[in-house]
Amino acid sequence: MKVLKVSGLLIGIIILLGLGGGLYVYYALPDVGDVPEIRVSRDSTSITRGKYLANHVAVCMDCHSRRDWSLFSGPVPPGRVGGGGELFGREAGFPGTIYSTNLTPYQLSSWTDGEIYRAVTSGVGREGRALFPVMGYHRFGQMDKADVYSIIAYLRTLPPVKNDVPAPELDFPVSLLNRLSPAPAAHQARPPVSDAVGYGAYLVNAAGCVDCHSMQEKGQVVPGSEFGGGMEFRQRGGIIRAPNITMDQETGIGAWTAELFVNRFKAYTDSAYRPEPLAKEELNSPMPWTMYAGMSREDLQAIYAYLKTVKPKASPIQIRSYE
Question: Which pTM was predicted?
Answer without folding.
Answer: 0.92
